[in-house]
Amino acid sequence: QLQLVESGGGLVQPGGSLRLSCVASGFTSDYYAIGWFRQAPGKEREGVSWIGISDGRTFYADSVKGRFIISRDNAKNTVYLQMNSLRAEDTGVYYCGTTRVGATLLARYYGSWGQGTQVTVSS
């Protein structure tokens, strides 16, 4: 079974940058995409971005478009999320997950969630 492990979170000032990593162990070729999601206290899990495992297609939520960049290194079974120009509203626990469904950022179509990594944007 596929397992995902996130890392790279931390405390950063507004306007700063962080790079998150999602390392997959298992057969990623069984899945269409790996996505990044975030969840703030008291809020639902929100889709941020996904990347196609085989074709590298990408998609971003409007809230992060132009600031975040998702990429993959298939040799390392790793997906990255480069987060620039961070804002207080980007604060939350960031998770990666996988989907077989296709091009979607709906959390209910994702699984194999990792344990998450905390991102806090604050001065």
How would you portray this structure in words?
With 123 residues, this protein is mostly beta strands. Helices cover 0% and strands 47% of the residues. It has no helices and 10 strands. It has strands at 3-7, 10-12, 18-25, 33-39, 46-52, 58-60, 68-73, 78-83, 92-99, 117-121. It has a 6-stranded mixed sheet with strand order 2-10-9-4-5-6, with no helix packed on it. A hairpin with a 6-residue loop joins β4 (33-39) and β5 (46-52). The protein starts with a strand and ends with a strand. The model has no long low-confidence stretch (mean pLDDT 94).
Strand-residue proportion: over 45%
How much is the radius of gyration in Å? Answer: 13 Å
Oligomeric state: single chain
* Strand and helix order: EEEEEEEEEE
Number of extended strands: 10
What is the 3D form? Answer: globular
Tell me the span between the first and last alpha carbons: 40 Å
What are the segments in which pLDDT stays under 50 over at least 5 consecutive residues? Answer: none
Strands side by side in the biggest sheet: 2-10-9-4-5-6
Helix segment tally: 0
Helix content: under 10%
Structural class: mainly beta
Biggest sheet overview: 6 strands, mixed
Nearest-integer average pLDDT? 94
